[in-house]
Amino acid sequence: MLCSCGSTLPDAYDQAGLAAEDMMDHSEDGFKAPGFASALCVPESDTDLNTDGVNAAAFGLFDTTNGTVVSQGAIFDKVYPASTTKVLTCLLALELGDLDSVVTVPQESDIQVSGSSMADLMPGDQLTLRDLLYGLMVPSGNDAAVAIAYHISGSLDDFTALMNERAHMIGATGSHFTNPHGLPEDDHYPTAYDMYLILNEAMKNPEFAQFASQKEYTATVTSADGTVRSVTWTNGNGFLAGNFSLPEGVTLEAGKTGHTNAAGFCLVLSETVGDGDELISVVFNAPTYEDLYNGMRTLIEKGL
């Protein structure tokens, strides 16, 4: 069943039977997945562990240095991910795109959904893929996500096919993606464990963290009429914004927030602790903004 702060939806995508063949080399598509299972955090069971103080439908803390799962709660349940989806969108753009290429924002980026997070881009705008990725990760622009999908693949369907292929290649076979931004759809879901796998893979890309850790960014955008304007974006991550503090000795390396009514409040983070150990923490479907950040802090403290 799919978690969404108390409500459930029927499973919409059966991935039973996915096995080693799903992890095969796809280098002709620009991918290569060598030994995805090496050095991964593998839970000993699906039993919840160290759950006190975390008010969320699903969560996990993964010590990627030592290959251990420190805390876990419902990590194999399907959840609405909201904009944490964009970790995978960003990774694909970095792997398949040219950061200096110029992207024209398509008409399809004009998303008319109440509460949709946007980068204030207009159809016909032009900006580099580099700037567009900041528009994806800093203000969490759904319009930027659609523009990236069309730029990389020519259509949303083709891009989401790449998303699912890439997720399966790293072992995230409990997930299915139907859009590049995370607005809720019945058959758009990861698990908390799969989101750990996806962020872990993204952190291997040397350019990912710069887009996923920026507090503020100003982009140069050329409008369809040729006028040039500057657009400044700020990050809604409560730790980056200074609304909440990480435990002493913990450094945030990268992260992505997410929120919709269906998903509740979501956050995925990569962090390092004072002794150099690397952690990935995932919280899905917290009922409030405060529950999200207090729960994430509690989760990280368990890793110290």
Question: Could you please describe the fold and organization of this structure?
Answer:
- The chain has 7 helices and 11 strands.
- It is of the alpha+beta class and 304 residues long.
- The strands form 4 sheets. A 5-stranded antiparallel sheet has the order 3-2-11-10-9, sandwiched between helices. A two-stranded parallel sheet has the order 1-4.
- A hairpin with a 5-residue loop joins strand 7 and strand 8 (228-234).
- It is globular and about 55 Å long.
- Mean pLDDT is 89; it is low at 4-36.
Largest sheet composition:
5 strands, antiparallel
Percent helix, as a range, is: 10-25%
- Overall pLDDT score: 89
Spatial strand sequence of the major β-sheet: 3-2-11-10-9
In short:
The protein is an alpha+beta fold and 304 residues long. Helix content is 25%, strand content 22%.
